[in-house]
Design a protein that fits this description.
four-stranded antiparallel beta sheet, 5 helices, alpha+beta, 171 residues, 24% strand
Length: 171
């Protein structure tokens, strides 16, 4: 009599015990298949990594945002433009808005870098940054004028934090 098509749970009807070697081989093949499937799934990434952004959040005191932005325009923005021209950064942006509460920032400074390699030590790159800063200090009339320009800056703004974020494209 042929074995039934469906055996109820716990039924021994129609089943023969597989030899130990065959059971072991079946387990190994299943594990290999699962490992291969996992490896393929990992190679099919759902996210493409892009540029790295240095994000600085700044809180300006009441009615001082315009003054702070003018100070950025006088020194920070020219430095960033030169850095971009020399290929030290990909881009930069200044975002200004309103704070959502008393502890929130109202100005965000974004600097785009090609990747995390920017944060590795590089003497040639550091020398370019030093040259840019020296040129900007000279353009302002020297170190004393720059110091006078930056005096009081801490009274109109406070750094809320800095973080690094990577641009991602989700597939």
């Amino acid at each position: 009599m042929p074995p039934p098509i469906f055996d109820p749970p716990g039924s021994k009807a129609g089943h023969k015990k597989l030899p130990t070697m065959m059971r072991s081989s079946t387990v190994v093949v299943c594990l290999l298949f699962l490992g291969l499937r996992t490896a393929c799934a990992q190679s099919d990434a759902t996210v493409t990594k892009g540029s790295v952004f240095e994000v600085r959040m700044v809180k300006t005191t009441a009615h001082s945002q315009e003054d702070y932005l003018q100070r950025l325009n006088a020194f920070y923005l020219p430095v960033m433009r030169k850095a971009q021209e020399q290929g030290l950064i990909k881009s930069f942006k200044v975002l200004a808005g309103t704070a959502s509460n008393d502890d929130d920032f109202d100005v965000m400074l974004l600097v785009e870098h090609a990747g995390m390699g920017f944060y590795d030590t590089d003497a040639a790159r550091d020398a370019k940054w030093d040259t840019i800063e020296k040129e900007m200090v000279a353009a302002m009339g020297g170190a004393d004028k720059r110091k006078a320009f930056t005096t009081g800056l801490d009274e109109i703004r406070r750094y809320q934090g800095e973080k690094y974020m990577r641009e991602v494209t989700v597939k």
